Fold this sequence. Notes:
By secondary structure, the protein is of the alpha+beta class. It has a single domain (15-319), classed as Oxidoreductase, molybdopterin-binding domain (Sulfite Oxidase, Chain A, domain 2, Alpha-Beta Complex). It has helices at residues 23-42, 67-73, 84-89, 103-106, 131-137, 164-171, 209-212, 265-269, 312-315, and strands at residues 117-121, 127-129, 141-148, 153-163, 179-184, 204-208, 218-223, 226-227, 237-239, 252-258, 293-296, 303-304. Strands 3, 4, 7, 8, 9, 11 and 12 form a 7-stranded mixed beta sheet that branches. Strands 2-1-10-5-6 form a 5-stranded mixed beta sheet.
Amino acid sequence: MPTDRQSSNDPITPPSLYFNRRGILNAGIALGSVAATASAYRWFNPVTNVNHNAGTVVATNDAEESEEQRLAKGWLVREDKTAEKYILNYNNFYEFTTQKEAVAAAAANFKTEGWEIVVDGLVSKPATLTIEDLHNISEPQERVYRMRCVEAWSMVIPWVGVPLSHVLEAVEPTSNAKYVAFETLLDPERMPGQRTRALEWPYVEGLRLDEAMNPLTLLATGIYGKSMPPQDGAPVRLVTPWKYGFKGIKSIVRITLVAEEPPTSWNRFAPHEYGFYANVNPAVDHPRWSQATEQRIGESGRRKTLLFNGYGDQVADLYQGMDLRKFY
């Protein structure tokens, strides 16, 4: 577990600087989130340890594909996986609570039986899909990806899921489709955090169509070979490993192909802090902290952050000619 104490140079902003946000309530929520991150920088000590004993999700990776081929595609990293107990017990999921170490307990009774995902908009074959349908479109694959939070902490997570490109190909986007919009379940009874003003609900996200079609982009339905736990976004979440973690919208109920750039929750909340693209970039700081280094949860010390989170070989061509300071 991390044991290093926070130094005076760590990128954690004093509480007094937060209260220029959109009102005292929103400022307090943001403060609580980053304060929890500061605690993780000192040492990781979850309040409640919640296990996950759901059914398995079997990954059917191509047996003829070598480790070197998977590494070249970005589907695997030669870094220690983050222990499952940390992945299960250190989460951002404001639909339940803004307190990271409390999400697992708050979401423990969240049921997802009969879940459906509407895929519509500018497509020739709109569909309503179950999780089983996703797995029938494309057999689940394991992808061991780095995950970098905008709050400057990171993990290495063994996801299991379906390439989003396979799902989009099945519904046949029309020539007018340029972006993909995502929406989380809106149900304040089951997701009590939606009764607050932490964000504008439901949570929404978006990608350019070429980003969505990139082979790295995953609709994850499991972690560590088990079905997705509630606190991590059950039953299905988006994973784009070259982007900051807030792009990874959880508990998805709708995927819509659209012609114009869709709104996204954190960009709508604070557009000067959270851009639409949200590509990991150590040279572009958050307005309130540096992005040059990160704390790997479960380890001591800090490490340098990599451009595109280390996935430049797979995604840099998507942004040729773009000013990555302007399109952050």
